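Subgroup meeting minutes
Present: P.N., E.W., G.H.
Scribe: E.W.

1. P.N. recapped why we're keeping a running log of single-chain structure predictions: easier to compare across weeks, and new members can see raw inputs and outputs side by side.
2. G.H. added today's entry (324 aa).
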Amino acid sequence: MPIIIPPDLPASSVLERENIFFLQTQAAVEQDIRTLNFLLLNLMPKKIETEIHLLRMLANTPLQVDIELMRIDARPSRNTPIEHMDAFYKDFEDVRHKKYDGMIITGAPLGSVEFEDVRFWPKMQGILDWTVTNVTSTLFLCWAVQAAMHHFYGLRKYLLPAKLSGVYTHHLDAPLNPIVRGFDDTFEAPHSRFGEIRLPDIATVEDLEIVASSEVAGAYIVARRDGRQLFVTGHSEYEPDCLKDEYLRDLEAGIEPAVPENYFPGDDPSQPPIVTWKSHGALLFSNWINYFVYQLSPFDVAEIGSATLGSADGQPISSAGARS
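Output recorded in log:
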């Protein structure tokens, strides 16, 4: 939530340079508030588990958030009861006429598949284009990052020599970006993927800012400069045993996976994993909701997706301008 300060307070110029959001007293008086509407496109096989992980993150805010769930198509899920899908999930045709303040598109177990070979790729492309006009800010996770960067910016996905699995140290490349407000200079986050969009390729796109990266895992947080798109290549939402469960699943399948790096004490899978990423993960989602959704989204839902939602210098406009 923004702080409210007296008009012309000298500190305002300093706060503005540091991208710290505030409202002057009169703007706060005129401000109106409404429920934020979010859409979750869940592409993960274990949909209920993914719902729980992400809803925990979205609940970490004083703002009122209304969540809707969407599936890519009506094909039965092997890991989720059809009764659950039919009761709680909507199809794209059910929501395409609506507008949303925020949207999350999850990863999918498709890291080694070319985009054009993905069964639902044409539909995915249509949804990606729809987000531009119908969503204030879209958060892409893991595989969805690769899909969106390929679709919107023509960036190539590269397969890694082996699956990247573990918890890695990251550093801030753009410490004043609001999405990492409150982050330490270095922090840890889990990754679990087979592919990547390479840092030098991302750096060629003027509209994108590399916010945080890792010497091992590469790009981690990338933001469109107007806040309309946020790309997170890892899994800050993961619960303590997620990487362990994936490792055991692959073992049972005979894949002979490598032990997730920097996860088990002494790299010993018989030991309970040490969680080192939850605080920064919670902060990442809170910052996205606050700075890229709440502060960018207009009060009039019909205005969502307009070209006026970001300032020319790529900084989020204040809700005094967007919501009053």
